[in-house]
Task: inverse folding
């Protein structure tokens, strides 16, 4: 099934023409509405009229996470505040989250793209679909939710947490579809085993999984344990949220909604565009976004775009699996975590030395984050002689980390001088997850 | 009226305790009493020793996380009920005991403890004429 054959199956030439037209329009729009882009374009001596075809995109400047951060909170917003009907926020690298405002039209485009994803997965209005991404500032929950409503299926806004109750609903309501992180899907399977619920007791048939990297092996395990067919769902809040790309029944790469999000793959060092099929950093330009359009946003995700057309009939270009990151961002339980966020918290508390170590692991299919910090000698005053005093410090750090990272971290205090001084950035992280 | 106790943060892994004890040995300082408050991941080792101030310096030099805490050390009569009688005085004065441990020194029971109200504890000891150990006694008795 195809939600919007006019767009998903249009000929390459026709789409290129549409993309070129939209690119010209969006460049003109940001030129007049976002001082940041106007200055950048003026510096490069580019006028909106210089951009006429989609090939002209290589003339445009890149946008980075740092640009979003430097222009916090509304510096990159193009639409007037009165037109913004929703604001999401994702984690930033130094405490400032990335703020993304959406106009009514943006929410409409998002729902449309999400509807394309769900339809490709085989979801119809007859399905009862549980959205088990976190609802809230994170785009996962509401993004998927609106798509399910848009196709007319019944949405269960389960969000995350309370897994036993969720399983009861999956069984008792005959829920057929599920959107969540792949690790949460496996956690559901674990909980089923614990509660003695068999997959035969459930009517689950379709899973939309994303927000974190997953492997073919995880797919097989999820499918065999939950008794459903699972599909990849990709997105990022800076561009839109979930729905940027999606797998079809062929499951050979994820189709990008490229009439709205134009993809490029570049060499992350030279920034040169790479030919189709080569692996590099994925870059997106939003072609239709009103709230916060971005030109050539560097996702830091490493992958390749796949040449050729898909047997499903869609002509949209496909992206392969994400193979890694060109920065040090970690994805833990679907949430983006930067070591520098931990650093900012550690530095804000005088009890700790500016040394820390993040240990990421996956226990029973759930990601765990341990933060090791080193106590300063100055902490050792006369009252630091009971476990309660140590616990108190541990709890204060854990609470601060939780509020900055949006996920819980287990804190481990280390004696002064026991964490090795790290040389490079990556030395702050030990990722034990086997993916 | 109080003595200095060393409070040492040690992680629960092999080699951390011996590092502390070696530092004492190196400095030729006699341990008098010790106890540990442990949790799943670390412990607070509390030590009464001869020359606690020098011990603290030496331990710091050895890179050990150590703090000095003021604790009381009261001498007890060697008969049943003496600890209860002493602690009752503090309890009646509304003082809480944060932690407590005991050891024998020259055949006498010594009660080491910290309270939540040092000033009131001092007053209670003075008013009841309780025999206490002073810091100077530690070096002498050890």
Result:
């Amino acid at each position: 099934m195809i939600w919007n054959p006019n767009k998903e199956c249009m000929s390459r030439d026709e789409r290129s023409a549409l993309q070129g037209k939209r690119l010209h329009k969006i460049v003109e729009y940001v030129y007049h509405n976002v001082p940041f882009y106007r200055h950048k374009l003026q510096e490069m001596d580019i006028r909106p009229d210089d951009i006429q075809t989609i090939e002209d995109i290589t003339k445009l400047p890149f946008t980075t996470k740092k640009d979003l951060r430097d222009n916090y909170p509304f510096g990159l917003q193009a639409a007037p505040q009165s037109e913004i009907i929703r604001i999401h926020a994702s984690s930033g690298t130094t405490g400032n989250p990335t703020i993304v405002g959406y106009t009514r039209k943006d929410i409409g485009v998002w729902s449309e793209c999400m509807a394309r994803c769900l339809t490709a997965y085989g979801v119809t209005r007859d399905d009862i679909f549980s959205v088990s991404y976190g609802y809230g500032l994170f785009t996962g929950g509401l993004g998927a939710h609106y798509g399910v409503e848009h196709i007319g299926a019944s949405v269960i806004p389960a969000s995350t947490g309370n897994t036993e109750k969720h399983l009861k609903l999956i069984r008792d309501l005959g829920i057929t579809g599920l959107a969540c992180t792949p690790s949460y899907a496996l956690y559901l399977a674990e909980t089923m085993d614990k509660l003695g619920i068999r997959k035969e007791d459930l009517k689950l048939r379709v899973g939309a999984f994303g927000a974190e990297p997953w492997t073919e092996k995880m797919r097989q395990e999820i499918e065999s344990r939950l008794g459903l067919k699972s599909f990849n769902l990709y997105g990022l809040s800076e561009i839109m949220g979930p729905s940027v790309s999606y797998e079809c029944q062929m499951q050979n790469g994820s189709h990008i909604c490229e009439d709205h999000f134009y993809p490029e793959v570049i060499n992350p060092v030279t920034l040169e565009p790479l030919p189709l099929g080569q692996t590099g950093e994925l870059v997106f330009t939003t072609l239709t976004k009103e709230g916060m359009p971005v030109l050539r946003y560097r996702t830091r995700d490493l992958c390749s775009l796949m040449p050729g057309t898909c047997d499903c009939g869609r002509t949209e270009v496909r992206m392969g699996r994400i193979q890694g990151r060109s920065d040090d961002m970690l994805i833990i339980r679907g949430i983006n975590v930067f070591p520098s966020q931990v650093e900012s918290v550690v530095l804000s508390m005088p009890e700790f030395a500016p040394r820390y170590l993040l240990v990421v692991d996956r226990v029973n299919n759930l990601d765990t984050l341990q933060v090791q910090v080193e106590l300063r000698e100055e902490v050792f005053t006369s009252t630091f002689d009971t476990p309660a005093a140590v616990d108190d410090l541990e709890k204060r750090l854990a609470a601060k980390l939780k509020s900055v990272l949006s996920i819980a971290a287990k804190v481990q205090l280390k004696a002064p001088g026991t964490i090795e001084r790290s040389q490079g950035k990556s030395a702050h992280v030990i990722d034990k997850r086997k993916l | 009226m109080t003595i200095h106790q060393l409070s040492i943060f040690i992680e629960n892994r092999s080699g951390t305790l011996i590092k502390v004890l070696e530092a004492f040995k190196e400095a030729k300082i006699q341990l008098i009493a010790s106890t540990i408050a442990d949790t799943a991941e670390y412990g607070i080792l509390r030590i009464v020793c001869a020359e606690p101030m020098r011990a603290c310096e030496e331990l710091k030099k050895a890179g050990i996380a150590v703090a000095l805490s003021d604790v009381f050390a009261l001498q007890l009569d060697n008969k049943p009920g003496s600890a209860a009688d002493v602690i009752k005085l503090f309890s009646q004065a509304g003082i809480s005991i944060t932690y407590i441990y005991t050891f024998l020194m020259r055949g006498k029971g010594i009660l080491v403890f910290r309270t939540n109200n040092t000033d009131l504890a001092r007053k209670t000891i003075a008013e009841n004429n309780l025999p206490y150990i002073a810091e100077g006694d530690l070096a002498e008795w050890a």
